[in-house]
Amino acid sequence: MSNPTIITLDGPAGVGKTTLAKRVADALGVAYLDTGAMFRATALILGHGADELSEAELETRLADIHFSLSGSGSTSTLSVNGHVIGDEIRTEEVGMMASTVGTLPRVRAFLKEQQQTVGAETPLVAEGRDMGTVVFPGASAKIFLDAAPEIRAQRRVDQLLEMDKPADLTQITEQIKARDHQDRNRAVAPLKPAEDAHIIDTGSLNIEGVFNAIMNAIT
Ligand code: DC
After folding, report:
1. Which UniProt keywords are given for this protein, alphabetically ordered (predicted)?
2. Going from the N-terminus, what domains does the chain have, and what CATH number goes with each?
């Protein structure tokens, strides 16, 4: 399978994928697909205990979930069942629920099909964990962003403090490590760079530096 107009951007929680994926999508004039948002929205719809549903029940519940993508660049809009997905998915609790439903092969197969359908219709920057390895193995360029958990946690703390929100570095570091562990060690489509991915260590770079490194790698 070849996806000549797809750029994949994978990496762990809090590495800056969303900010960078939007900027790259703007620069290329293509849509941006936040697959983490698909896992988060699915987790919210299924609710707590999704990992205890029977296969048949899960299948039935998933059949009622439909995603659509409209717009371009950073203003690309992802909707589920006709509703625009908003900030209700952006908590660490929902991030962990998403990581847990992401261990379920049936959920992964379901979202992979929806992601590939979108990718077949629209040139994309696709952000997630398994975009380069599993969903778009034929992408024209693959990027994997990485940084130590302590660095990602400190960045998140800085963001929260900037928004005048409470932030506990120790707790956030633990949350990031727990999510990393679950995302890297699941049996199906674990978080890892594709063999042909450009790996960028963002530890010593600011957003501008990472953006330039990505653009150099893909153009
Ligand atoms: O990128 P994010 O923090 O919004 O993702 C939330 C969780 O969803 C992440 O911890 C694991 C899961 N996920 C996944 O398994 N595969 C993807 N392609 C994207 C997200």
Report:
1. ATP-binding, Cytoplasm, Kinase, Nucleotide-binding, Transferase
2. 3-218 (3.40.50.300)
